[in-house]
Amino acid sequence: RGEITLGDFADRLGVPSSEIIKKLFLKGQMLTINSPISFDLAEELAVEYDALVEEEEEIELEFGEKFALEVEDREEDLVERPPVITIMGHVDHGKTSLLDSIRASNVVSGEDGGITQKIGAYQIIKNGKKITFVDTPGHEAFTDMRARGAQVTDIAILVVAADDGVMPQTVEALSHAKAAGVPIIVAVNKIDKPEANPMKVKQELMEHGLISVEWGGDTEFVEVSAKKKLHLDDLLDTILITAEILELKANPKKRAKGVVLESKLDPKVGPVADVLIQEGTLKIGDVIVAGETYGKVRALLNDKGERIDVVGLSQPAEIIGFNQVPQAGDTIYVIQNEQHAKRIVEEVAKERKLAETSRKTITLESLSEQFE
Ligand code: GDP
Ligand code: MG
């Protein structure tokens, strides 16, 4: 049986971590947001939250089941899933160019080319394997989303311009990736420039603990030019090798779970959310919740703007059907039925409002004083 952290668990329940910490504190257990909680404890807590809503038994099953699925995927249900890649680096070092070039060079012949849809992520196929690229500014992917318990990225590509070298945001990106425990591949970009000095990039990054494989370390450096589309294949191969080592797996059979990457209000179709599905399979007609919003999936679009019926593991998609615009970083869950979904978001909204007003006052110290 696996364990999850209190923070993750709170997120899954849709209640602030502070509330769970307080609840446990009052029971004499001092836990923090990072403490692992046992399945039994989690189950005990879930029951308490379910008791808040009317149809006790059903909701209890809802949360209990959701959580059970979270920790106990049967080995035989797990399948390989595509890696999710985030590109990070200093401004102007070529993040956007690299994303665009990789996408453009992977347009399957016969497709009418051109990027029809601006979605927060896209998927390509290399050597018959899918790779998902998430187009969120590196920081958001690692800070905002992580703060909400949603780890999106499997592998970080650190772009460093060979004519500029390691810059402040390079170091910042590096520290985010390290904190998240995500493997880093360095893309030394702009090698087409006469003044490019890839060696200098390697030396500078070594000072930050990233030692290239050639030099006896374990970080892959790939020299590329996003502009001239040089060595992009090498970069993709390196991503696939890294992904293979990670043995990324998930269960496609259960109800879908994912994360909202971006969202907006479309004047024609209403709230639109770009999501990345991390577990299960999302289908038209599924009832969904994300933070304080809920709805029923009315339409699904892939990264090319085509209508699709199902969204699989690590696949990005645009969802139409939310009643309001969900927040980027919110976790999206498929829920049994609309009634339940409505109750869950009501609770989440209530809890978030509460958390808003008490965020600053609830710390472990203030709690212990308060309840002494
Ligand atoms: P971002 O801020 O990291 O997203 O960087 P951009 O992708 O917007 O690129 C910044 C500038 O660098 C643009 O003018 C690009 O055309 C240029 N650029 C990006 N990649 C390369 C490259 O491989 N070679 C050259 N010569 N210029 C590049
Ligand atoms: Mg950019």
Tell how many strands the DSSP assignment holds. 19
Instruction: Report the C-alpha radius of gyration, rounded.
Output: 22 Å
The backbone outline, from C-alpha atoms, is: globular
Which hetero ligands occur in this complex? guanosine-5'-diphosphate, magnesium ion
Adjacency order of strands in the biggest sheet = 5-6-4-7-8-9
> What is the averaged pLDDT score?
83
Class based on secondary structure composition and strand pairing: alpha+beta
Q: Count the helices. How many?
A: 12
Euclidean distance between termini CA atoms: 35 Å
Structural commentary:
- GO terms for molecular function: GTP binding; GTPase activity; RNA binding; translation initiation factor activity.
- This is Translation initiation factor IF-2.
- The chain is an alpha+beta fold.
- Helices cover 35% and strands 25% of the residues.
- It is built from twelve helices and 19 strands.
- The strands form five sheets. The protein has a six-stranded mixed sheet, with helices on both faces. Strands 11-12-18-15-14-19 form a six-stranded antiparallel barrel.
- Helix 1 crosses helix 2 and helix 3 packs antiparallel against helix 4.
- The longest helix is centred in the C-terminal third of the chain and has 21 residues.
- Magnesium ion binds next to helix 5.
